[in-house]
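Lecture 7 notes. Example A: sequence first, then its structure tokens.
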Amino acid sequence: MIWLRALKETARAGLTIERRRLEPLVALRGAAGLALVVGVTLAMFGPVVAVSSAFGAYQAAIAIYQRSWRPRPVLALASGTSLAVSTFLGYLTASHLPLLLVLLTVWTFAAGLAWAIGTTVGVIAASNVAIMLVTITLPTSVAEAAGHAAVIAIGGGVQALLIVLFPVRRWGAQRDALADALAAEADYARRLRENPTASFDPEPLMLARSAAVVSPRQARRRPAELHGARGIAERIRPVLASLADPAVGVPVEGPERERVRELLAAAGTVLDAAAHAIREGKSVRTPRDAMDTLKKADTLALLSGPPRRAVIRLAALMDDVVETARGEGAGEETHRDRPPPHRLFLRAVKSVRAELRWASPVLRHAVRVSAVVCAGYLLGTALPLGHGYWAPMTSVMVMRPDFSQTYARSVARFGGTLVGVGVATAVVQGAHPGVRLSGALAVLCAFCVYLVLRTGYVAANVGISAYVVFLLNMGGEDAGQTVRERVVLTLLGGLIAMISYALYPAWETPRLRNRLADWLKADGRYAAAVVAHYAQPADVDNQEVRQALLAARDARIAWQDALARAIHEPVRSRGLTRAAAEAAEHALAQMGRSAMLMEAHLPEHGAVPVPAAAALADALRQDTERAAKAVRERRSLKWDGVRAALAEWEDDDTVLSGGTALLAEALEELTDALDDGVRR
């Protein structure tokens, strides 16, 4: 059932095309750049050189679709240049099979390790290897190989130039990330009306934070409405939660609760309006009724204590959101500097070195993919089908570091490849298109790929495979290969890739306890930092609390990603059942929520200290460190220090007392969940 469910979900996702994610102007620009490169090189140098240039321009346009906050022209240039280098080095060894296998091993191993740097780099590196297997067959001399490499690099340069000359949605990715964060806050506010303890997925806020990393030059050109809104969104979330939660807010029923529901609905309306304005780059239309609701005079008379303070803060934050969406108050938040190139390089080297351990999924992927590509190349060459590079090209295109992508989404990629190869080859053999018509069909396929690349990846892979077939026909290559031969080689490459993961896996399931322990430790540090602030009130923008919150978010996302991958794996974790994992996840989410509720009302500098908070903060740090170790070693959790600190608690502050009570409940729930998992 696991396999059938995974394949069913993959097919549904791969065949679904979301219209809102289509960007026809961007696709048209990429296809126009490709057509320009192919047309010029075809007229000047002939069809074979035109094929090489087309691969460079195509790959450069593909690179700009990857999720990255780097400037798009930089991605296009980097992709074209790296492919040019790969092609030239590949040709130098193409006539000597042992040397070529050594190069393929080294190059593919490096491409596998590139996933340690990031998904964008990993995808570009894998695509370079796949395309290199084709382009090295085109030149006939070293001089021609250098020429082909040059036109490939020029193809990437043309795409980069078109991005500069014809920008589409300037700062579009950053706008979308910030708008998604505000829209997520709006949805959260509406859900809190019905469920006062609703959970919030912090991923949109994390993406918005990543999008805010810019160079000083970019910071000077960044639109005013992209300044400050992310910081405001970060402050809104805990205020909304503290206003809605009965533990620190108003009672579950009564006139106060009805008023809170009105306020939450109004906040959601304002946040949606700001998100729409930022996404479209238009002036925000202030929802007057919603703003009036947030500032009703009788609200402050109806509420008291922490809820009253939360309402005052919420109204001020909504004003800030509207002003920021209008482009006002741009100086409220300094930008986050993007590291210079040498620091980025050192960071990349550090990331790769961290994966050079036997248990690393990235290292195992690098070993796996390099072995598969070499085996596929040898088998494809040995079979009497001609142009055996179709097998290793399919393998490197479908393989990913984790099982779920290799066996689930890669099945869709593999199916799309089969359809694309079969249909395009049938067209070539049936219609016998000439050089120019083949080039036009290739450009049309590329446009379709660019259009659906971010949605409907089955359709995208149909277009990619057809694109390669039409280009090769334009260059006079592969003319004798039939549909059957190409399908057989594609099937061979896909099967080798799947078998390799079964023989040499890198399961995520056995590491779930480590991920859970990391999240527990991070949540404990976050809660301790918040509680310690009550013992020694300081500046509300305390960096210790902020850094602890970010670390807790990273650990939570890492756990959720690992759990999502483990669900599709045909192995089970010892001592951590599915039910225990879900219960533990809920407990840790509540632990983080309790800290967030207390953070919403951090005392200002000079406020009266809470002496008991210091002992509780120390106990949280020490007990969560020990508990994280116990989770890894499958032992019962002990909270003696935290229980002792709570037993001496004498503070009557509603927020702090309510928050610590929720924290204690979350720790007990976590203990019960993991003890139950061990017993089973």
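Example B, a different protein, same format:
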Amino acid sequence: MMERRASSSERTPLIVPTDPGPKTSAALATGLNDVELIGLLIATNMSMMTTAQSYIAADLDAFAEATWFTSAYMIAMSSVTPLSGRLSGIFTPRLYVIFSGFFLAAGLFITAAAPTLAVFLLGRVVTGVGSGGLMSSAIILVLDLASPKRRGLFIGLINAGYTTGVASGAVLAGLLTPIVGWRLLFWIQAPAALVLGPLLFLALPTSSNDRGALTGSALRASLARVDYAGSLTLTLSVVLMLSSLASPQIPLWPIPLSLFMFGSFILIESKWTTEPVIPVRLLRNRSVLMTCIAALGMMMARWAVLFFTPAYAIAVRGWSPASAGLLLVPTNAGFGTGGLLVGWLHIRKANSYYISCLIIFFLFAMATAALAFLSTPTSSAVLYMFVTFLDGLFAGSLMNYTLSHVLHMTNPESHYIVTSLVAMSRGFAGSFGSAIGGGFFARVLKGSLETGFSQHGLSPRPELVRTLLGSPATVLNLSGLERLVAIQSYEYATRMLFLAGSALALAATVFQAGTGWRARADDKRQDSNASDEES
């Protein structure tokens, strides 16, 4: 009886679709096309920092804190995503997009007008909160409104919008920032975000909201069951840990506080809440746990490539910011192609993809290592772009392979929760990749600059070192030995970062190997029990 209830609850649509006629179908198609714009706007806002960072750091005098331009956004977006899923279920996604769009627009307005670094980072956090809510609502709307035959198409469109945004954001920012300034980029996005929520609300057919939002005592009861304590302790744990590891000089005091908050989070999730953000009981399933850890490691290495290849192109190869942003085009094209090819040619049914996962994981690690050795001033630009394409191709393939494999290893009744867990681990990888990768890169770069200046008999230049840490474009303004040292230091830091990413991908391969070929019987039972309790 419990199994039937769990299965039913997970298959019951959050929003019940109807098909009253061509008019409603046309409105639905228009609404879901607007959903695609969400992914485009969110991803553009994320990747534009890779080429606009130098100008923002110079304007706000925040060279040492430049890694937080992206990290603040990613941490807020990842932390709020699971909570947004709960709130979407209470208010309905169609209504929740209005609130999320407002937060996104408010964050962009704050960022555009920020007079200081603190206000700028506040704007990035508020923007991340809105982005997380919109992304959660977009996925739920597609799953619940699109017909089974067209669902894959619209999910592909969201992914296409997201990938296009990552690729185009860096190029547009690099092209426009030197001409119009970085603030105008946010002023342009803010009105679009303000209109996006109401536009999507109006575009979706009224019949899709038949279930209606909760009201009165039912609303208060549902809001009371939301796991606010779990969300808060998880966010504080992540922020404290990353605030330490993202710094040029690692402070130790946030680490024990982070561990304490994480322990509190585990205790809350396992003992004190009926609707946990992360169902800890399900993580006792070996396949689920190993898949989440492997996904975290793989995507951290992937985000390092996305965030730092433009910086390498500017500082080492001397490209303009707009040209440096073009490096993200082939790797994102590969990412989209990999997922499509795997789904079209290989993943045709629920099956074990154990060997395929391990092979592609290894190839991804080798592609990342190859980028490390190609990150020189004189390597072939065509070859470098081709390897970035392969890196994206393997990463996109892994997104499909690993999810399909873990679904094969778990009970169908738990697939909704398992998919959410894997998506959450991939989302947090962006935060970890930008913050930890940025901190590692800054520490290596700082040490290399100081050593290089000393070896060449140059006087200590603490201010120049501080500027170079947050502004790769500064290299273009140097000359003589100073420029030589800066180029060599950026080359070395990029190589070390990509080698570390390759090692991390190999470690993720080991964890992926731990998922197993076939699910054990006790894993299946534990998986089913956790799913029943969560439902």
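Note on Example B: The two ends are 13 Å apart (CA to CA). The CA atoms of residues 51 and 174 lie 5 Å apart.
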